[in-house]
TrEMBL record:
Segments forming domain PBP: 48-288
Signal sequence coordinates: 1-19
Taxonomy, superkingdom: Bacteria
Keywords: Signal
Name this protein carries in UniProt: PBP domain-containing protein
Naturally occurring in which organism (per UniProt): Sphingobacterium spiritivorum ATCC 33861
InterPro entries in the cross-refs: PBP_domain (IPR024370), Phosphate_ABC_transporter (IPR050811)
């Protein structure tokens, strides 16, 4: 049985369970079973701590709001952290569920294998690393090759600094992976605490190019006060032999078509040893409603939500 078939069977079973639990949760219990469920939890009841890569926080907050409004007996606490810290929290058992842009490495997985815990890992969307600049700068594009050179401390003959959201961030890790960089240079870099600080710096200065996630940029377009002073830069599609060397802005279409080279998967990592709320939340995120939220937010869903078409025999 291949992985795709196994995945569909598993999610169908969970979706069926969701429907059953939704029906049952509307009934009042006279024998104390509701209290017992609240204490121990199941796929739609109880409490769940979820570690979230802080570059993905805006869309996950939106997903949690819809989930909790649909399932009133569930309570999800989001623990926002940069990637390095988030992975460490997961390995320290601070939570059993995490949403990250990478899976655990083989050495990290050993911790859970020793406890006989088999992970349930599903992709829920596609995000990206994006570069932003002040509208007062002449630059409208950038190459990943030049970014890698700056991270290595090499002089590229251009006058700007890279503004990092956090030295432990998943955005920086991705760029280091691309450039095969073990240690970044402090030359030409400015490290902030989070994406909000990057946005504020770029809006107020013309000497820096900020690095944030696509989700953070989408959220900034909705809520950042000085968004009109910031623009995204197009990136050259030149990382692979199949690349056409053209420059593309990050958007839903270029991510879905693989034209924007800094796309990245978003995973939910569930290390709960039983069928708890983590399974229910995973099913929601990978199901039709969760995927529609991703699509509406301008991210790329892992699976395209279905469309309902009503066919009539005759037109009245």
């Amino acid at each position: 049985m291949n992985k795709k078939v196994s995945f569909r069977i598993f999610m169908l079973a969970v979706a069926t369970s969701l429907a059953v639990f939704t029906s049952c949760s509307s009934r009042s219990s006279k024998d104390g079973s509701d209290e017992e469920k609240a204490k121990h939890g199941d796929i739609l009841n109880g409490r769940l701590s979820v570690i979230v890569d802080e570059t993905l926080l805006p869309i996950i907050e939106e997903q949690v709001d819809v989930f909790q409004n649909s399932y009133k007996d569930s309570k999800i606490e989001l623990v926002s952290a940069p990637e390095v810290k988030g992975i460490n929290l997961l390995l320290q058992d601070r939570a059993k569920t995490a949403i990250m842009t990478r899976k655990l490495s083989a050495s990290e997985e050993e911790y859970f294998k020793k406890k006989s815990i088999s992970p349930k890992v599903f992709q829920i969307a596609t995000d990206a690393v994006v570069f932003i600049s002040n509208t007062g700068r002449a630059d409208t594009s950038i190459t990943v090759e030049n970014v890698v050179k700056i991270l290595k401390g090499e002089n590229i003959g251009q006058n700007y600094s890279l503004i990092l959201d956090n030295v432990n961030s998943s955005t920086l890790r991705q760029l280091k992976d691309i450039g095969k960089i073990e240690k970044i240079s402090g030359k030409g870099l400015k490290a902030m605490e989070n994406g909000e600080e990057v946005l504020s710096y770029v809006a107020e200065h013309t000497d820096g190019i900020g690095i944030i996630s696509y989700d953070q940029w989408l959220n900034a377009k909705r809520s950042f006060q000085n968004k009109d002073k910031i623009r995204t830069l197009s990136v050259q599609n030149s990382l692979t032999k199949e690349g056409d060397n053209k420059f593309y802005l990050p958007n839903q279409s270029t991510l879905a078509e693989g034209l924007y080279v800094l796309s990245r998967p978003v995973y939910i990592l569930n290390y709960q040893p039983d069928m708890g709320l983590g399974v229910g939340f995973s099913a929601f995120l990978t199901g039709d409603r969760g995927q529609r939220i991703m699509l509406k937010a301008d991210l790329v869903p892992a699976t395209m939500p279905g469309r309902e078409i009503i066919i009539r025999d005759k037109v009245e």
